[in-house]
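Teaching assistant's notes for section 4

Start the section by putting this record on the projector. Ask students to predict, before seeing the second block, whether H17B6 dehydrogenase will look compact or extended. Collect guesses on the board.
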Amino acid sequence: GMEGLSVGSVLLTGCDGGLGLGLLKGLLEQPSPPRHLFAACLDPQGKGCGHQPVPKPSCPLADVTDPNSIKAAVQKVKEEVGSAGLNLLINNTSTTRRSTLATETAENMSLVYTTNTIGPLQTSQAFLPLLKEAAEAKGQREMSCSRAAIINISSILGSIEVAEAWEERQDICYRCSKAALNMLTKCLALEYGSSGILCVSVDPGHVTPPLEPGMGPVTVEESVRGVLQLLAQLSGTSNGTFWDWRGQRLPW
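Reveal the predicted structure now:
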């Protein structure tokens, strides 16, 4: 509905530019913006989120592949939110390497998997206690992004059934990492669902680098509007599922 996404605290990774920065702006522009918004940047002092007018923008989660960096971020968030816990974790950090099947390398595969799949795993593991606190803190029983949720920003390029845009972009390392991220979403949903934590994969339609003209949404703004609208509508029946920015259910 028009009331937007109302959530007490949000940690968003990958805020250095593009979709991450767009989501940050979109969250701040909600009718009732988050009381605590943690923007995890690769470069907290950099041009990305450091200079945005965000309440406490820099969260020291410089690197989602570094356990010490994640631990420091958990500590920072804990100090701010206290016993209310963390309501919403959006795993948005993502990288890619342009490639074809002929040119794909072990180095690409390993680098992209480390960021796109292991990063969200480690971040979700580390923030689980705070997400559990949030799930228990609310009087409500219904699962939602307002209560406690992990949203993995995935891609339709990771859908095995759809195998979208093969002619435009093979990018094996990216496709494989996102297919694996989708399996992680399902695993998180199976394990954390009983604690009241909603776990969902979302394709924002805005991929970097962009596909050919005409593919996906035209602007980051359009993507962000759709994603935030979707997040406001997710409930327990959506746990462990895959959606796109248009609010359409996607096949794995």
